[in-house]
Predict the structure.
Amino acid sequence: MKKITAILVSALLVMGMLVTVSGCGKNAADNQDQEKVLRVVTEAGFKPFEFKENNEFVGFDMDLIRAIAEAEGYKAEITHMGFESLIPALQSNKADCAIAGMSIDEERKKSVDFSTPYFNAGLIIAVQKDTEGIKSPDDLKGKRIAGQVGTIGADACNDIKKQDPNTTVKIFDSVGEAFMELEKGGIDAVINDYAVTYEYISTTGQGKTKIVGDVFSADDQYGIAVKKGNKQMLNVINDGLEKVKASGKYDEIYQKWIKQ
Amino acid sequence: MSHVMPGLFGINFIQTLMEINGLKLITSNLDVLLLGALVTLELTALAVAFGMILGLIFGLAKLSPQRRLIYGIATFYIDFFRGTPLFVQILLLYFGILPMFGHVGDFSAAVIACSLNSGAYIAEIVRAGIQAIDKGQMEAGRSLGMTHGQTMWYIILPQAYKVVIPPLINEFIAMLKDTSLVSLIGVSELTLRGKLLYSVSYNAAWVWGTVAIIYFIMTKLLAMLGDYVERRLATE
């Protein structure tokens, strides 16, 4: 009898938790309709696109998404997540859009829809200051290389490893740890987006690291991601982006954050 | 019976299940995850082994308040590593402190961080284990002409280790789970491999579900080993 009671009580508890959880989801959606909040997710370890200063989300992407939200009559509410969790957050309706220096690629397009491109990116190789003989991705075969989890830089690392299995690939949660690893000599090179790497080598990494070779994957462009099939949100973003570009606000934000 | 519930418990059901993308994802990547589990086990075993050495040394030091210096060092060591998150310790050691002593690889750094952390907890386990032994044992040893060290080594410790085994297994299980934090510095253990698989598939339920099951199996086996050792000790 005691056993049965125990089972019943735990079953009730589990059900109670499930109801609470699903209830929470619904409330969030309701509130969003009333207040017109744009729930944005990002990975705030990607200076100058998104990072935190004085506990505020700042950077190119952050200014851009706030401007887009404003143009469309929304208030942007930004939260941080691991880069690899941004797309799942959209899929499970935890957020309306993700802006995180995210390159538009075929693999991701299977899971999300992208806005019109808002930034021309491309990859670059960063090495220690005294490193010689690395000029292109081909020179990285058999070397120790690193990138950030879920990025096209990490994909490029894995492609090199496919061509030469002697290559060691290390993947970090955020690109800052990959740069630290480069500084202390744990790896030979970091493959990452040009603008972010440039920002790093000209600030924190100055005198210790340098950029080599040309930008590759130069057709790479950043887009704002929304849940696959969410036409309404995609229209809001694209329309807002167009307005921000037309008003000159986009150029202003570009001048502010991107080093020429 | 089979046509009453077509396909539910038969071949069709298994085929439907196989067509679920998540299952395909897991079956084709299970070897990668299991290799990660091996790294996790290796790291845990090394961390707890070194942790036991550190724990014994600092646990004994913690029992000699009259030796001011070593008591002070032991107290600081235990307080620091129990009082700060392992997350912070790993990043501090790997990027902050170890580079001052030359190049230390990620796996070695992970072993060092986890051992130091584990050692602090084991020191407290050792101290409690020794204090659980009746004072009369030490007094008896001393009155027979044995030194303090001899009594400790031949009389107290052999009794204390029985008391110490259950919390030690507990520490083993806790450490096995805590090693997931070394994914921060790029050690390719189970959690990092899960993270990488998740970053290309975005399939939280299947990837993290599988990772959870693998962790669960490992900790369950450890717990069973603990039960077995405890039973053996009880009958001795």
